[in-house]
Amino acid sequence: MTDFMTDSRHDLIASDRVEGTAVYNxxxxxxxxxxxxxxxxxxxxxxxxxxxxxxFLGIGNDHYPLPWSILTYDTDKGGxxxxxxxxxxxNAPRYAADARPDYDEAFGRNVYQYYGVVYPW
Amino acid sequence: MTDFMTDSRHDLIASDRVEGTAVYNxxxxxxxxxxxxxxxxxxxxxxxxxxxxxxFLGIGNDHYPLPWSILTYDTDKGGxxxxxxxxxxxNAPRYAADARPDYDEAFGRNVYQYYGVVYPW
Lengths: 121, 121
Fold this sequence. Notes:
homodimer, mainly beta, 2 helices, PRC_barrel-like_sf (chains A, B), Photosystem reaction center subunit H (chains A, B)
């Protein structure tokens, strides 16, 4: 990921550089990686980034939707940092890779509330 | 791309389903494909989608930043449709794949102006 900065112009980041990026917490524990992220089609607003971990060779791992706003990119770590104890993920909203749910309003509010973020839509 | 709808929940679309999607104009001409898109990190706002075409096996093709808002997904075509004559791309802002420019404000205003879209930031 040494070329990360070449794809990070000013305040912008390329979509394909977000995908696959490692996620850590403030204690430096590796939580997983960003699998992909969900964009509101009409407005172009990113609503969720999906953290994935576990499973074997990416098979069977769970996906954890996170509010985009809780992710901060850390150039030293070469990944995103979120202020989150690992245990918080134990009960977090998640779904199996092959069972992506309806991202409806109830789902969205639940995700945002779980991470203590106001659901702004 | 038959599974497109399974990754398109309500008004949301997954980032990795945008990448690689074909782009047509209203005359049905194939213009290229979406290579990736650029997200404003802090706000999570998508600013540009990058159309690429030309080259050989993806090598040497030019990248054309487009305002996200001019893309409309057409389920019948299985791709994005933009209201654009092919010739308009002849003089459009572009860059070589290995020479991504600074996406600064002047660059952004130029791109948006070229496609007749107000630069809203």
